[in-house]
Amino acid sequence: MVQRKHVLAATVAVTATVAVSVGTGLGFADTAPAARSVCTGSVTFSAEGGPPAATSDRFPAGTRLRVTNLDNRKVATVTVTGPSGSCVLLNAAAMDLVREPGKNVIRRNVVERLDGGGAPAPGAQPGETRPGAAQPIGGSVCSGALTFFAGGGAPAATSGQFPPGTRLRVTNLDNSKTVTVTVTGPSGSCVLLNTAAMDAIREPGKNLVRRNTVELIR
Q1: How far apart are CA 76 and CA 110, in angstroms?
Q2: Whole-model pTM?
Q3: Which position among 28, 125, 142, 162 has the lowest Cβ density within 10 Å, counted as fewest Cβ atoms?
């Protein structure tokens, strides 16, 4: 009787081990650590055409990045083509590769650099502020084009550089329209406007504000 109990216990243990192994292989028990991301915050896109690509305020043109949407495991490999106001701002074709239907923002994501480098060391660049600096460098606290996410409510923004509660004044230099926004949370951009803020300054039919000034209101 004792021997039968030992055999039964061993059989259950082996079966459980096999089940865990099979489950992991099928994605039911994914314990693999997520890759380290070179960008933080949400990923969004611009209305730029062409093959999958991206712009960035951290990586130079020619840098190759792999963007993974953790909610659906879809992946896009893109080459940085120029500057923007985001760590990575996808174009329309790249976003279509990884987005979920009806969503314009990828909140859970991993961005990997494919050319052997990690995230560049933080340092002041034109349009950015150094920690503790009293004045913005180059007249604007952000550099590159501005875009938006499909967030409702009053004019507001998210930011990868400024904490919630920070007030910013954004000016479209092409039409001199201005909007004052409060940062409500983090994103992968120096400043990412919500829909109401973008509508206040955009030119008809445009989803990017290329020539802009972002001022910190103290």
Answers
A1: 11
A2: 0.53
A3: 28
Domain count, the chain: 2
Within-domain flag for 6: no
Taking the C-alpha atoms of residue 48 and residue 92, their distance in angstroms, rounded to an integer, is: 6
Q: DSSP label at 138?
A: G
Interval 9-31: pLDDT, tens: 555 444 444 443 333 333 333 43
For position 60, which CATH number holds?
2.40.40.10
> Residue 33 domain-assigned?
no
The reply to whether 32 falls in a domain is no
Q: What is the mean pLDDT of residues 97-119?
A: 84
Q: How far apart are CA 175 and CA 202, in angstroms?
A: 8
6: left (phi over 0), alpha (psi -120 to 50) or beta: alpha
pLDDT band at 97 (very low <50, low <70, confident <90, very high): very high
Dihedral sign from CA coordinates of 135, 138, 142, 148: positive
Helix/strand/coil percentages in the chain, nearest 5: 20, 25, 55
- Paired tokens of 151: 């967030």
Alpha-carbon span 78 to 92, nearest angstrom: 12
Tokens of 9: 């216990």
Q: What is the DSSP string of 4-22?
A: HHHHHHHHHHHHHHHHHHH
